[in-house]
Sequence to fold (297 residues):
Amino acid sequence: MTPAEKAVWLIETHIEADAETSPDLTELAEKCSISARHLMRAFAIATGMSVMRYARARKLSHAAQKLVHPDFARRNILTIALEAGYTSHEAFSRAFRDYFAITPEELRRRGHLDPLVLQECLRMSDHMIVKIEEPRFEKRDHLRIAGLKRSYSVESSTAIPAQWQQFIPWIGNIDGQIGYETYGVCSNITNDTSASDQNDNAMCFDYICGVAISGQTDISAPELTIIEIAPQTYAVFTHRGHISGIRATTYTIWNDYLPKSNLKPLSAPEFECYGREFDPETGNGTVEIWIPVEKAA
Fold:
């Protein structure tokens, strides 16, 4: 069972138990035998959504079903709220309205779920695990990347290809550029909050499309940002073929290779490196995926 699959199973078990708490990211990660950061990455790559946003959506969907089911007609809304992991009627109503655009009271009076879109239990597909090459391990010195930075949630990260299109005119035109490689750097990955958080803060991260620059270079263009990446030891994985297949490669790395290895991903920037063997016009070629790691204790 992959970490993403186990997290789904743990969330469903939690819901079935009507636990008066919300699933906790740290607890879920511990039960998956990986770090919270690792679970966040593995789940996001597998599903396209954050693990705690999924947990919240499942809890609210289960509560919505209770509100219209005859077997729960005598159960008051506060009790259903507590069973969904909310500490008050107000917090539950606010989260329910934000998610479904209807209050719990209105749904109960309506007596049916149409046209609500419920979050169903996710089903993982084995076809996402592909054969990958063994990584090489490399100690990399301090790295400075200059480029376009955007902030994303898991759900909004589908805009990253458009960010690359905006960056292409800058390639070769940034002062102090070193080498010909381009980098896609993922950093500042935030922790999910609890599924009952009224603001539904989900996994967010910064992504920079950039090039390496020398240590003495100052960037004056206001559109560009510099990220300083400290020396790290990396597991360097290779994706070969069309770029459309890179999701299966990263899925396999985070949900199959790393959980079975003695490696622990670190809370540091990770990046893709596009060199001469990658053709940006056709999307074919070789991409390296650099993940900072250390040996697990």
